[in-house]
Predict the 3D structure of the following.
Amino acid sequence: MTEELPDQHLTVAMIAARAQVPPSTIYRRWQTLQQLLADVASERFLPDTLPADTGTLEGDLTVWLEQLVDDLSSGPGNALLRERMTDVRAARVAAGYAFQNLVLLCGRCEGRGEPPPMPDRLMDLLVAPVIYRIFFAGQTISNQYQAELVHHALQSPMIMQPFGAQASIKDYVIYEDGAQ
């Protein structure tokens, strides 16, 4: 919807018009636009299945990052995350989804005999540049750039070490489903 009207902010009236219902129908279920977007984002960004298991951390991260970029770059996904950025609690929930997935992918490493990296490092090396480039620079993220991010992250000697002077992201994100 926002790709159709890029200079306008999303409103309940716009959503109601697109759904061909009166705005009161939307307001009966959700009192605010933020509540509606939070529900939609929870559905959209909480995957129906676990991230793909390709057999290697590099393969898992490549597939996962591609799906994340697709979600964030799509019109609805982009609009939902932009709305979430204006609400600290909602932003922390969105960060929790990404962090949970990285924790899961790192946990798989142990079962395969691969050394598990720190999920916090992966957030900084994979997720942060994607968010910055999409939302603040307005860039499209190429598959080649995604592959480079994954390759460089896995080559970093720091990827196995926790931060000494920075708290873990796990202490700041909000887990709606109780996972941690």
In short: Residues 15 and 21 are 9 Å apart (CA to CA). Residues 1-7 have pLDDT under 50 and may be disordered. The helical segments are 12-19, 23-29, 33-45, 57-73, 75-85, 88-112, 119-136, 143-155.
